[in-house]
Design brief:
- The structure is a homodimer.
- By secondary structure, chain A is an alpha/beta fold.
- Chain A is built from 13 helices and 13 strands.
- In chain A, helix 2 (about 60-70) packs across helix 10 and helix 11 packs parallel to helix 13 (about 365-380).
- Chain A is globular, with a radius of gyration of 21 Å.
- At the A-B interface, helix 1, helix 3, helix 4, helix 9 and helix 10 of A face helix 1, helix 3, helix 4, helix 9 and helix 10 of B.
């Protein structure tokens, strides 16, 4: 089996590549999926193999609603949740249906580089908004919205990852959330909240989603099973106001295709019914939390030399800022010379940030490898 | 289990609804899928659950390439085929990436009504082209292209279903294909060929796809496993020139999502490896061919009263034209009064066709039910 012709992941021998924000292949829940697949095909038979309902199958919508009810201050009503084929598909669908050609989409700077690629495939203009270790800079956002409105520009939405952001790992602070709420109420700004890392908290549960605390109709929340279960299933969900869900679930693609991700939706409904989901998520929290610590500990000596990072409370990433005098390309080359790799901050930015950084993913490798990688990075970058 | 909250299919008690172009739920290959799922998870393990390669997994691309090589005059090279999440997803992706706002998309009149919905969700203008029992009216197409080019309009592509069309069941004749080739060569018209019914031939294999016989770069062929295997898997493929495949497979959505339909791609690769696909397709040909005959036979008495149809050589549909003096809405009401249902021609048309018709799907019900439905229709419509 030639994995390089099956997987996106392309590993080079000997190199510890912390550029990949992928889960550990060897720790994905194969046995649970196997059992759920068998049970679901027994239970649903041909109903698993034909055209599904547009909002997505009720057993999984109900299971996700119950999960949200347990963990957030608000659960979606029927008609306020639909299934997606993951957050990438959800974002592509939303920009195609809710943005008009020429609209502005606001994005965090830095933000998830491949969301930028999805948005750039649409006929919209991306306008960056600064963010820092407390998340989105809401005062800057407010100014940008004011300027754009004065220019008569239509803003389709703000795309934000407020919880365990990619690439920074930062979570939008409670104070900033309050500020953002005020901007939303004053300007009617629409938010697309990418909530993909919510379940991967390592110390304490994160703040509730913007969707669950903001006024009805202001936030479209993209939930995903990619990080909490398995990305290969291509499965997620959207919670939003009923009118938005009706527009999205009522589109031609879902009508023609019979919903989206029908087969795997029933498979995962069975996995929830068997009670496996909570255990899998809990295992991931332990697994990836320890990996975060291994990388953080190994890198610590660099903090004496002006390298800084926010200790990530969840997600996959450690975002290490370089001291002002260090060049990004040169620093990357130095760690590559030690057979470690990472992604440079430029990849995630629409405009200069005033600093350079490297994104290290601690998800793919085990603790020993992360410790080794961290030591090599320290060796490469220590003055 | 409440199927109405799982499936798109919504059946009303006592009514034989020939409106649904869906496969028979009870004849989908549950056992094959079960075996393939188990075997694929054993073979691929975690590789089935993580991010996939952008073009789609090699084992399935190779299996499909071998199948095409057996059945068509041309097989795609590496780089000329990619996997899709079915033809709806493929069409939505193509219109979003290859059409610019304001472009024209040419569509057959009549055509698949839900493809119209997908295209209407994009910022393009749909221009209908007449078609008849020999398929697309290529002379009319030629005129329309000439006029549009004189108006400086950009035509993104022609969307056509040349083989066992939905709703008419017609196949573009060899003579018309030659004419179309000439138009393509002269005008550089781009074609998106929806080839979803290719495997469902009942008398003889169909003409090769346009993709396999037209100049490289002129045709994007959308192949699907929805009709030949199971729609719920949401799986298909695209064959086109390497530059087009590179643009489609290189888009942000597939980069961010790790390909599309990764899990079910490896499942179906295993189904091919086990040799099940050819047998399933052969079974469908017998099953649905007999159903076509049952409906056709039962409706035959109407041919004495001016109702006409092209005996469908493949696909799911019988397209019955009404005599000129019969009103469409009234005729539909008459058969509904007999507890049969169908879809009216207006649903498939962007402009008047000069005739009215009803689309009957013979895929969902067994022969006895189709005979019963046909008899009720005859009873309802006979003068």
């Amino acid at each position: 089996m030639n994995l390089s012709q099956i997987l996106q992941l392309q590993l080079r021998p000997g190199i510890i590549d912390l550029g990949w924000g992928h889960p550990d292949l060897t720790r994905l829940p194969v046995a649970s999926i196997q059992a759920a697949s068998t049970a679901a095909l027994e239970r649903y038979g041909g109903a698993m193999l034909t055209y599904g309902i547009d909002h997505g199958v009720e057993p999984l919508r109900h299971a996700l609603t119950a999960w949200i009810a347990q963990h957030e201050p608000r659960a979606p009503q029927d008609g306020e949740i639909m299934l997606s084929a993951g957050n990438s598909q959800a974002l592509a669908l939303i920009v195609s249906l809710l943005a008009q050609p020429g609209d502005v989409v606001l994005v965090e700077n830095p933000t998830y580089h491949l969301a930028l690629r999805i948005l750039r495939d649409a006929p919209v203009e991306l306008v960056p908004v600064p963010c820092d270790e407390s998340g989105l800079d809401v005062a800057a956002l407010d100014d940008i919205v004011t300027v754009l409105h004065a220019q008569q520009r239509r803003i389709a939405f703000l795309y934000t990852i407020p919880t365990f952001q990619n690439p920074t790992g930062a979570t939008l602070s409670a104070a900033r959330r309050q500020q953002l709420l005020e901007v939303v109420q004053r300007t009617s700004l629409r938010i697309v909240e990418d909530d993909v890392y919510r379940e991967l908290w390592y110390d304490a549960p994160p703040l509730p989603s913007l969707w669950s605390t903001f006024p009805d109709g202001s936030v479209i929340r993209l939930g995903s099973l990619a990080k909490s279960l398995a990305p290969g299933l291509r499965l997620g969900y959207i919670t939003a106001d009923a009118a938005t869900i009706a527009r999205l679930a009522g589109c031609g693609l879902l009508d023609s295709g019979g919903g989206i991700a029908h087969f795997q939706s029933l498979l995962v409904a069975e996995l929830f019914a068997r009670g496996d989901y909570a255990r899998i998520v809990a295992d991931y929290r332990v697994l990836y939390g320890r990996r975060r610590d291994a990388l953080h500990q190994a890198l610590l000596p660099l903090q004496q030399h002006g390298f800084t990072w926010h200790y990530p409370a969840g997600g996959y990433f450690l975002w290490m800022r370089l001291p002002a005098q260090r060049q990004l390309a040169e620093s990357l080359a130095l760690i590559q010379a030690q057979e470690v790799d990472a992604l440079p901050s430029t990849l995630f930015c629409q405009m200069p940030t005033g600093y350079s950084a490297l994104r290290f993913a601690f998800s793919l490798y085990d603790e020993a490898q992360l410790t080794e990688a961290g030591q090599r990075i320290v060796h490469a970058l220590r003055p």
